[in-house]
Amino acid sequence: MNSLTQIIKSKEATIGIIGLGYVGLPLAIRFSEVGFKVIGFDIDEHKVNMLNDGKSYIKHISEDVISKMIDQGFLATMDFTTIKDVDAILICVPTPLGVHNEPDLSYVKSTLDLVKSHLREEQLLILESTTYPGTTAEEIVPVIEALGFKVGENFYIGYSPEREDPGNKNFSTQTIPKVVSGHTKNCLEVTTALYDQIVDQTVPVSSTQVAEMTKILENIHRAVNIGLVNELKMVADKMNIDINEVIKAAATKPFGFTAYYPGPGLGGHCIPIDPFYLTWKAKEVGMNTRFIELAGEINTSMPNYVIQKVSESLNSIGKSIKNSRILILGLAYKKNVDDLRESPSLELIDILIDKGAIVNYCDPYFKSIPNTRKYQIELKSKVLNADVLQSMDLVLLATDHDDFDYDLIEKESSLIIDTRGRFEKSEKVIKA
Fold first, then answer.
1. pLDDT digits over 297-332, tens only?
2. Catalytic residue among 92, 187, 270, 362
3. What domains are there in the chain, each with its CATH number?
4. What dihedral angle (degrees, nearest 10) is formed by the CA atoms of 185, 191, 195, 196?
5. pTM for this structure?
6. Residue 270 a catalytic site member
7. Alpha helices, DSSP H only, in 72-199?
8. How far apart are CA 136 and CA 209, in angstroms?
9. CB-CB contact of 236 with 230 (8 Å)
10. Phi, psi (5° rounding) for residue 77?
11. What is the mean pLDDT of residues 382-395?
């Protein structure tokens, strides 16, 4: 057992978390809970200041939890020179797609640039961000070796993909099994020892490439199956069949079927993006990923399908999209979370505004719409009441938060487009 493994097992190690978002912050909390000193690094001054003041910017993480973490010695900082003071470095930064659906590793590379001059011997560096198979070995290891370190001997590198599911009350950082890997056998030993301290089960695999591929597979599985039910939704609609009723009936089969539900498009950081990491990498080895690409085509087409339903529904009452008052219910990419990443609601709003609609929205988690890399929409959330609903030509349910009063919505709305299967089909409820 090397010295780094020993100080990890004794909880004498200091943990550095780079990127304090939906992945990094839960990790910081968990390491702090079990007794480690944790330093959180981020380039967002607002996040750093909020955490140091004991405040949370993620809805499902309470300020009490942040305060307890601070009492345990947690510090958030923008000073990356203090990387030298930590024993384990976990990189939890975004890995988006470029304009041509190519992997964008700029955040990972810029993080390495920030820390590399402050690294020392007997440190562990782990990438948690989702990426294509080979990233750790091809992009991280060479940078570390160029600094003069011997990976697996005096410096250790691992990969462990995040599996956070914001808003899911059934699973936590502790209870979700953690896939772990290392660049060498010694790297795997140290990486496993670290995560053994905070999760109930680690799942060691033979290489960082296997771990990277594991995460990609998990998200491809969801993307392809959601693409399937989205396509079936459109087919069923032509047959005047409610696909949500079909899925609920099929889900009663106790074996051989897993229920996936359609929606207005794919959202979240992982599922709309990660499959294309493998598509890009597969082309390097002369392979085409037809299932992935087809599912991507279907899923990205869903907002336009919803808009078509909006247009047809308004036409049926003698109106056009232009100048119609439309209320979007739900901004978040899924229900009961304050997460806008890749949310199809933003695209729906953008398209409707472009077509001349008078667009409003209601979401209990967003008083206004923050700017994103793709959208800058200046709207404020409406209070959901009878007057607002009655003033709208059409209500579009995009994200079915449990906080919404669905009885009120159905009673007071003149026309509803339901993309989530929350309402029974009727004269005023159109499934989309």
1. 999 999 999 999 999 999 999 999 999 999 999 999
2. 270
3. 3-205 (3.40.50.720), 230-431 (3.40.50.720)
4. 40
5. 0.89
6. yes
7. 106-115, 135, 141-146, 185-196
8. 8
9. no
10. -150, 155
11. 97
